Batch of 2 targets.
Target 1
Amino acid sequence: MSSASRRSLQLTLAILKPNVVSHPHLVHQIKELIHQKEFLFIRSKRMHLPRARVEDFYREHEGRFFYNRLVSFMSSGPISTHILARENAIAEWRKLMGATKVFKTIHEDPNSIRGQFGLTDTRNSTHGSDSDETALKEMNFFFPEFDVEDWYRESERHFLTGDVYFDEEHDIHRYKLNHAKLKS
Ligand code: GDP
């Protein structure tokens, strides 16, 4: 059995885009939805990317009609980036976000994040990785200091079995080690 198939929690990269981050009450509401769906916040970082970094991030879309708009928007203000963990995190986060095209999503999936908070196809509120491979690449892009293998080796089991709580100040979940249990 490969080590990947023994993993219970999947990691994904989530971004709250500038149209959300510029309104703290929207950040709050969207984070509530994320908590309700029982995602764990493993790492959180707020940043304002220069245009060149956004161009790198969205390189696969270079040449598409919306690329320039997308890059201008994503570098227009701060974003909030998160490594989220959950069983089936990639698909579950994309389900919670709703589909890319906001005007369709507002009608077809009104309770999704994009259905509720999306403004246009460009300013559609959130981003989520679409595969394990992309998640790895995107986590490394925003959190180069985060070692995925090390996290699975050292931390995953504590998030599954430990006493997990949310650290509001740092915007991440933590676990308390139960030494009595660990010894037995
Ligand atoms: P995602 O995985 O749902 O974010 O979708 P994509 O990876 O295909 O596109 C990346 C981002 O580009 C989307 O989240 C949108 O912000 C933007 N985008 C994608 N398709 C369109 C489009 O048809 N029109 C516009 N204006 N923006 C788009």
Target 2
Amino acid sequence: MRLSRYFLPVLKETPAEAQIVSHRYMLRAGMIKQASAGIYSWLPLGFKVLRKIEDIIHEEQARAGHIPIQMPTIQSADLWRESGRYDAYGQEMLRITDRHDRDMLFTPTAEELVTDIFRSYVRSYKDLPLTLYQIQWKFRDEIRPRFGVMRGREFYMKDGYNFDLTKEDALHAYNRHLVSYLRTYERMGLQAIPMRADGGPIGGDYTHEFLVLADTGESEVFYDSEITDLKFGEREIDFDNVDQCQAVLEEFTSRYARTDETHDEAVWADVPADRQRTARGIEVGQIFYFGTKYSEALNAVVQDQTGAQVPVHMGSHGIGVSRLLGAIIEASHDDKGIIWPEGVTPFHCGIVNLKQGDDEADAACEALYATLTALGLEPLYDDRNERAGGKFATMDLIGLPWRITVGPRGLKNGVVELTSRRTGESEELPPEQAVARIAEIYGVAQAQE
Ligand code: 5CA
């Protein structure tokens, strides 16, 4: 993309309404625009990161064997009356009346609708296990929407639902989700710690929230410091293997890690004092096992091996997709702007032309742009007729992890400059080598000369 043709409405001033750094940078970098309280338009740069996050989630869901679907945002109240949640959900639910005076609502979550799909088609234990998921907009009429996309009223969520014959099978689905989420967040450059949590309006005794530690987080958390040393990393996992998934769950949940809702001073006292940590965290996901709560209410039954009709065991599993942009920025920024992890960056690198209009500099930038693009990478080429200082400030603000700087002086010596946004370190090297380095970082193969 050439910056001169892009739509990147960068703000010079810090918007007064933004209280936390991620909200400030998302507004200043032209990623989102508030449409009304807690409701945002996604501008090109923000939308691009949202899509990257979605892509990672889809890939990891596929790896775990989960199947994508799409359910509507507007639902009839009838199913919610069947489950008893129409009244129970309270004022957070946006209620809508259609022209025929029918009660509708904007989905805050989708246990009822997905259970209705299941009960309409699935009759036998032979069709289990089954996990369906979607990535879809949700609406919760939060009393205090704030911090930009962190606590929106309209927000984007991955919500998945497992259907299993037995509690044991459903607990495997729970463990599988935990493993899959660990991988998912790490690919986004995040450490998200599973913590024992509270079921809230979704329900269920088994539930973990995934928290990213950050001073601006809304939850107070208590954990054993050993937990931050754990990494999922590159390990191979067979998601159908019950023991493997169970082992990962035990590894990541055996140490004390709880939100304030489940914090227990008596158990906490057993954690060695020098390992006790209290911090703030951002909840980027939650998994639940709630048994037959919805299947019994909505009569979602299958025939088991003995011919008996039994309600299926279920759980649901959510990722705060739009909230993740805020969480990633909270975890990765400096005083100049955002620092995107390579896994979610909107463009793979920036190209800054120090002297637009200089034949050699223009030609070198065009060549870099063409070569990187041919490799399947997306560079953002700042081809505007602007001062170098302004171009650097924009690149730093929007946070691309790598920048190639091209100027007449360097080109005389046959070099360009490659700069890491994270460390600020620069290196001079020939343009072909800069391309090779970027290709290597992103794991794309270069054709042999
Ligand atoms: N049905 C279950 C799992 S699919 C569910 O709704 N879980 S949830 O309530 O925990 O939401 C899932 C995730 O959505 C949360 O972990 C959080 O990251 C995100 N989320 C919840 N409310 C908001 C909000 N108001 N703004 C932004 N993200 C939110």
